[in-house]
Amino acid sequence: MSKRIIDLSRPILDEKYVKPDQTAERPGTDWRYHGYICIQHRLDCPVKVGTHFEIASHCVPDPNGPSLERFKTDDIYALDIPVDKLYEIPTTFLRLDRNGLGAAIAVEELENALNAANVPINPDDALLVQAQKKASCCEEYMYFSKPAVDWIISKKLRLLGSDSWENHDTKIEKEPRSVKLFYELFKASVWCLINLNNMDKIRKNRLKLTVLPLPTKTTVTTCRAVAVEED
User: Is 51 within 8 Å of 209 (Cβ atoms)?
Assistant: First the structure.
C-alpha cells in the first residue's frame, strides 16, 4: 500500500520571531567547541504563530460576565493530551467552492461538499475544511456561521481544522452577548487546528491526520500537522 504524506503546517519564518541567539556575544560565553561553531537561534513568539492547536480549556466563560453554562474538560494543557489521541486520526476532508460568497460559511456549503465527496463523517473523526484559495492566512478571512458550527458539533468530532478562521464574534441565539464560535466548539470538546497550509495538495476526502503539538503547559501551542493518504 502506497502513501502520500502532506505537510499541512505553516512555516514560522518571520524574523521578529526567529532570531539569531545574541547570548553568544556576551562576555565569557563561548559557543565554539573543538574547531566547530554551534549556530544558535531563539524562537520567541506567541503560541498562536504558524499552524497551531487549541484545546477546550483555552476558552471558558468569564466568571464576572453574564451567567453562561460552564463545561468540564479534562484537557488542561496541550502536554496532557495522550499522543495516541493525535496520531492517525480518521479524517474527512471537504473543499468548499466559495467564489462570490460572503465571509460566513453556511451549513449548506458543508452539506453540499460532503454529498459531493460521498464519504462519511464518523463520531470521533477529524474534519478538515478548505475554504479559501489564497496562500496567505491574512487575506480574505472567513468564519463558520452559527448554523455551520451547530452542524459541526452534531457530528461529534474529535477535531476541526481549517485554513479559514477569523477572530470573529458570532451572535449566539438566546445569549445575552456575542460569544466566539470557538466557545461552542470547545464546550462540545472539539479541538481546533488553526491556520493550515497546503490543503490544495490533498486529493482524497478520507485520510489520516497526525497532529504533534509542542508538549507545553499551555492551552494553545504551535504544532506540526501531517495528512496521510493511502492508495
Answer: no
The enclosing domain of 112 has a CATH number of 3.50.30.50
Counts of helices then strands in the chain (DSSP H, E): 3, 16
Determine contact, residues 101/145, Cβ cutoff 8 Å.
Answer: no
DSSP element (H, E) containing 61: none
**Inter-residue contact 158 to 128 (CB < 8 Å):** no
Q: Give per-10-residue mean pLDDT for the chain (231 aa).
A: 92 73 49 68 77 79 52 68 94 87 83 96 96 52 81 95 61 39 82 91 97 89 95 85
Q: Which grid cell is 214?
A: 509542542
Burial class (CB in 10 A: 0-12, 13-18, 19+), 196: buried
Residue 42 lies in a domain: no
- Output the pLDDT for position 76: 77
Give the structural domain span for 138.
3-10+47-230
